[in-house]
Amino acid sequence: MREYKYIRVDKIIRDKIEELEIRKDYKYYCMVFMNKVVYSYMYSVKKENNNDSWVRKSIESIKEGIFGNKKITYDCIRALENGGLIERGTSYLKDEYSKGFKPRILPIGKFITVKAEDYLNKRQITNFQNRLIKNLDRGVEWHLINLIKNVEVDLLRLEMVARINFNYDFKIYKTKDEFIEQIMAIEISEESIREHLKEIGLKRIRADRIEKELCKRSFLKTKMLELLELENTGIVKGEKGGRHFHALSNAPRELRACMISTNPKKPYLMQVDIKNSQPFLLLCLFEENNIEIEQGLKMGIIGGKFYEEIGFCWGFNPFDITNNHITRQEIKRKVYSNLLFADNEIRKESEYFQKVQANYPKFANAILTLTQNGETLASLLQELEAKQMLPVVKKFKAIGLHDAVLTVTVNQESDVEKVKEEILKRFKEKYKITPSLSVDKISERKEVNLKLWKHI
């Protein structure tokens, strides 16, 4: 579990916090809080393609997890706001005063290491550690142990990703700590992003596109540092749905490809994925609740053609949805925002939902029925996913990722068939239907390559 003996923080953000007229110990808490807000914001903007995102963190949760009491919490938040480090939104959680947060400074400069002992006394460090322990869900530690014991970063692969994304010229390094210092030294400039966008053919480069690229690259750098120190990371069980959130959960695809097995006797790192997981899990929800939908759409979901069926309702060519990645991603975004992850008020007002309802009334009404008591479809889907996939993750000492993806180390590629059989068995017994599964080799541990980086 992360002890927060030190944190990696952007130097500009650290310097801004140092200028705040607050107590020294408050400044350290502010740095921890800023790291969390900045990290969540960058991921949200990168994922949602929306720079109007707000990081929703309740006052109660940040009090319990970081600051310790409400007075310190409010004093620090006001200081950060007055100092131009964060903005506060106008969204509220039911029965609790709480606003969304947005950073006004992104971590695009050099990172530095800030030690807790330079800001907190021994008693404060102990209390801070106790707050972290208190908020730790002991029931999910096994998953974190799987992550830390089973995988590590291949430095050569990670160096390649850094060179491509940051055009950074690495110096010779002999230890992982020396490599980390060089990652921390990477700076991200608007000028380099403008040049990149021009190179890919963009003529009008808007401010929101630049911010998205800044967030994408800053998140990549931050995630690199996190994966390089897996032993200092934590794991959280989602309040809604029960998913487990850890360092690999939201890692970009290019960083997942940098992970390798720690065990030479199990050199293959394999990934098992439920294809079109959200539509399939939705069908399982219907089966669990004895809800009937149109047979044609049901067969489309089982056959992996759900997005083609729904896209056709909106005037898209099914062939394009299958074969054009950009078109398919557009359909997915519309499905998520208008069908799966919207609330019922938005669904009823959405022209996209209405067109689906006109073509598949049973399906549309089934969604409304599942969420009529206030539950969100997202949490119901995540809960079902967690109940079925996490036992498989635990049984095979694997690592679970979102959207029904599982990563496991094996001594032969064919050994992953046992994992597939277990997944199919669970869904067959519970829902009388089975998903389509894909299997990919993420990496193969090769000792000769691991020794090579020391001699570069």
In words, what does this structure look like?
There is one protein chain. The chain is α+β, with helices and mostly antiparallel strands and 456 residues long. The protein folds into three domains: 6-134, Arc Repressor Mutant, subunit A (Orthogonal Bundle); 141-232, no CATH class; 265-444, no CATH class. The protein is built from 22 helices and 13 strands. The chain has a four-stranded antiparallel β-sheet. A hairpin with a 3-residue loop joins strand 11 and strand 12. The longest helix has 25 residues, at 24-48. The radius of gyration is 23 Å and the shape is globular. The model has no long low-confidence stretch (mean pLDDT 89).
List keywords for this structure.
single chain; 456 residues; alpha+beta; Arc Repressor Mutant, subunit A; four-stranded antiparallel beta sheet; 13 strands; 12% strand
Number of strands: 13
Domain unit count: 3
Category from helices, strands and their pairing: alpha+beta
List unreliable stretches of 5+ residues: none
Helix content percent band? 55-70%
Beta-strand fraction estimate: 5-15%
What is the makeup of the main sheet? 4 strands, antiparallel
Q: If you compute it from the alpha carbons, what radius of gyration comes out, rounded to the nearest whole angstrom?
A: 23 Å
Spatial order of strands in the largest sheet: 11-12-10-13
Distance between the termini: 33 Å
SS element count, helices: 22
Q: What is the molecular shape?
A: globular
Overall pLDDT metric: 89
